[in-house]
Specification:
- The protein has 9 helices and 2 strands; from the N terminus they run αααααααααββ.
- By secondary structure, the chain is mainly α.
- The protein has one domain.
- Strands 1-2 form a two-stranded antiparallel sheet.
- The protein is globular and about 40 Å long.
- The two termini are about 30 Å apart.
- The C terminus is likely disordered.
Length: about 200
Amino acid sequence: MILELLTWCVAYLMGSLPMGLYAGYLWTGQDIRNFGTGDCGIGNVLRVIGLEAALLTIALGGLKGMIPLWVAKLMGVEDWGLALGGLLILVGSLWTCYPGVKGKFSISTTLGILAVLAPATAGAALALVISGLVLFRKISWAAWALVISLPLIGLMTTRNWMLLTVIFALASLVVAKELQGVVKWPILSKDGVTYKIWD
């Protein structure tokens, strides 16, 4: 159990790493958050710095999804521990623990997680993302195509209930993150009902 706990902690911390920020520093020596949309996502890196830095961000994102799970697998962590580790990598990416960094959904990190946990699903998801990029020419649209289609891709590529649970959870976490800034939850205050954005 100690090995699993260590895996989960490392998975969350690795998932939290802002790879676009690091790619920006490596490429230009500057903080990417000071330019464009102000976030560390691949779209901002592509617009502000260029294709090479965006490709580096993709590679680093994929590695942060794969490395913790590969190492844990080599150390003998069981499938259920790896599955939870994969979810925690995505949780780290969406809700990062590093101050000043806004958590984001990462296509490459999600594909990295799936490459270790469910390679057939990862291959189908990659084909969908490439098709989405060619068709829509927008990273955000390709990302949403992946999130919406991921449960169906999972059902088509695996019958393992644990992997299907992880795949459905991955998609649900992304939707929850995106709703975070949109949905208003009623709370009671002195003056009656007021609204607070969920955070």
